Amino acid sequence: MTSEPAAGQVLERNTPGDSQDRELPARYPSARDLPAGGSKRQRDEERQPFRWDLALVWFMRVAAILWIAKGLAYWVVLLGFLPQTPVFETQTLQWQSAIVYFAVIDLVAAVGLWLTSTWGGVIWLLAALSYLLIGFFVPHAVVSGPVAPGILGFLVVTYFVLSWRASRIAP
To answer: Mind listing the UniProt keywords for this protein, alphabetically (predicted)?
Structure first.
């Protein structure tokens, strides 16, 4: 008398000459045989993969907020709203050029980052790298300590890694 195996069970003969079948537990239990939480393997299979494209969007939005603040800070210096900042017109041409450049490019980059557009990332990289280069060659033209280039370098590397990982996602 042979019967169909139930879900999660396998029929196996005891010996080659024995006609009696016995039920053995299946190698992989069904979902109803598992405890309420399920196995770690099933939880891992049910979990969605990490969304690198979503991480890139969040990174770009946070960077956009930071760059809006940075651009507005340059406009505060340019317009002389803070009493401790030097008068814009009395400064050197290099300093004035750097302030005007970053007051404009930082806000343009922030808009592009917020829109998560390709041109926004390019303009942001241009702004970040020009800040590093101007800080290196003309240190008095930008406010830069030892921490700012490190943070900026970290942000640029993070952007490249997230962009690379997001581009490798299968459609």
So the answer is: Membrane, Transmembrane, Transmembrane helix
| Residue-number span of the structural domain to which 31 is assigned | 9-46
* One-letter amino acid of 113: L
Please check whether residues 93 and 122 belong to one and the same domain: yes
Partners of residue 12 on adjacent β-strands: 22
- Residue pLDDT, tens place only, 127-167: 999 998 888 887 777 776 778 888 999 999 999 999 999 88
d(C-alpha 17, C-alpha 137), whole Å: 90
How many other CB atoms are there within 10 angstroms of residue 161's CB atom?
14
1 assigned to some structural domain: no
Sign of the four-CA dihedral 81, 86, 90, 93: negative
* Separation between Cα atoms, residue 68 and residue 61, nearest integer Å: 11
Q: Can you give the pTM of this predicted structure?
A: 0.67
The partner residues of 22 in beta bridges, in order of sequence, read 12
Residue 67 lies in a domain: yes
Domain-located, residue 3: no
Contact 111, 127 (CB under 8 A): no
Residue range 82-94: mean pLDDT, rounded? 83
Which contiguous run of DSSP H or E holds residue 19? Answer: none
